[in-house]
Design a protein that fits this description.
Helix 2 runs parallel beside helix 3, helix 3 crosses helix 4 and helix 9 packs across helix 11. The chain has 12 helices and 9 strands. The protein is α/β, with parallel strands linked by helices. The chain has 2 domains: 255 residues, Alpha-Beta Barrel (TIM Barrel), CATH 3.20.20.70; 69 residues, no CATH class. A 9-stranded mixed β-sheet has the order 6-5-4-3-2-1-7-8-9. Strand 1, helix 1 and strand 2 form a beta-alpha-beta unit. One of its GO terms (molecular function) is iron-sulfur cluster binding. Keywords: Iron, Iron-sulfur, Metal-binding, S-adenosyl-L-methionine. InterPro entries: Aldolase_TIM, Radical_SAM_PqqE_MftC-like, rSAM, rSAM_sf. This is Coenzyme PQQ synthesis protein E.
Length: 341
């Protein structure tokens, strides 16, 4: 009989955003990253965050993102090494600017492989390729696969785009990448909606948009309370959501002023965050829309993080939740306990 591993309260992932500086300047970047963004988390603080997070028995992964985490150079290798010593898996999210050739990619990744890097997560799409060609993505993927590092490629999803999953698969550099390294293209390459930030606008195909006919297909948020994020401002977030910077409620406090574990414990008692983990923002917004039909939400959003931002920023939805949450609290808490069992 299979034994069920008991749930250990706490996050499963620490994401470190060491800097918002990036070699690219993509329109609608969730963090407004570009080459001229100043500052980064000091290295001693990055290492301290890893040590603190490793005290969570639930923690299994440390992710380094940004901005562009590869700008850290040897400091990135040191941070990956420390996480590996704690028995944690590691992931680096990057635009692949450093992978100008397969030789260059191998040279950059060998040290990270030796440090214990588990996964290389590469980002591309129409916005990214204005600054980094897709050849870099494939050089990086091929080098990682050769070194036994897991590979994931995230592709921007929007209407009328040039760079697609199929374009990557048909590229000459992709030949032999999947069959030769036992990679499943359907798992390795994931298309995800690009989100409009501030007053920007991103066109989507209608079949990507959330509405009453398809909201039942949506599931709970796998990031809230499962991932904690350390930002360049030394803030701790309760999720790695793309719109987290725009949602004060997921900002738990300053890491220089409070204990990471205390901040997480306070967040884990927040019913809305629990509800997001169980049902996701799409179903919460749809529920609120049934209570107040004046809430206009259908066919406006494609990404879970985008509708989550809408949920937190809408006075109407906040009012409905405040007035009616007791109708669902028992059911939500029961399903949350089952989810974690």
């Amino acid at each position: 009989m299979n034994t069920v591993r008991p749930w250990k309260p706490g996050p499963s992932c620490l994401t470190v955003l060491p800097t918002f500086r990036c070699t690219a300047a993509c329109a609608n970047c969730c963090f407004g990253s570009h080459p001229w963004v100043p500052g980064r988390i000091p290295q001693e603080d990055i290492l301290r965050y890893i040590r603190q997070a490793a005290r969570f028995e639930s923690l299994s992964l440390v992710t380094f993102s940004g901005g562009e985490c590869f700008l850290l150079g040897d400091d990135l290798v040191e941070a990956v090494t420390l996480a590996t010593r704690f028995g944690l898996a590691t992931r680096c999210v990057t635009n692949g600017y450093w992978a100008s050739s397969e030789k260059a990619a191998l040279h950059r990744l060998i040290e990270l492989r030796d440090a214990g890097l588990t996964e290389l997560n590469l980002s591309t799409g129409d916005h990214h390729t204005r600054f980094v060609p897709i050849e870099n993505i494939l050089h990086g993927a091929r080098a990682a696969a050769q070194l036994g590092i897991g590979v994931a490629i995230m592709v921007e999803l929007q209407a009328e785009r040039r760079v697609t999953k199929q374009v990557l698969l048909e590229h000459p550099l992709a030949q032999g990448l999947f069959d030769g390294h036992d990679l499943d293209a359907n798992v390795t390459i994931v298309e995800s909606p690009w989100i409009a930030m501030e007053d920007g606008e991103v066109p989507y195909d209608t079949n990507c948009l959330i509405n009453a006919d398809n909201v039942h297909l949506r599931s709970g948020c796998t990031s809230i309370l499962s991932t904690i994020v350390a930002t360049p401002q030394k803030e701790l977030f309760a999720c790695c959501g793309i719109t987290a910077e725009k949602i004060p409620e997921v900002k738990l406090g300053l890491l220089d002023q409070a204990n990471m574990h205390d901040m997480y414990e306070a967040a884990s008692n927040d019913f809305i965050k629990i509800w997001l983990a169980v049902d996701g923002p799409e179903k919460i917004v749809a529920w609120a829309g049934q209570k107040d039909p004046s809430i206009e939400w259908e066919n406006r959003f494609a990404h879970q993080c985008d509708i989550c931002r809408f949920m937190y920023q809408s006075p109407q939805i906040k009012r409905v939740i405040r007035e009616h949450y007791q109708e669902v609290v028992g059911d939500v808490l029961l399903r949350f306990s089952l989810l974690r069992s």
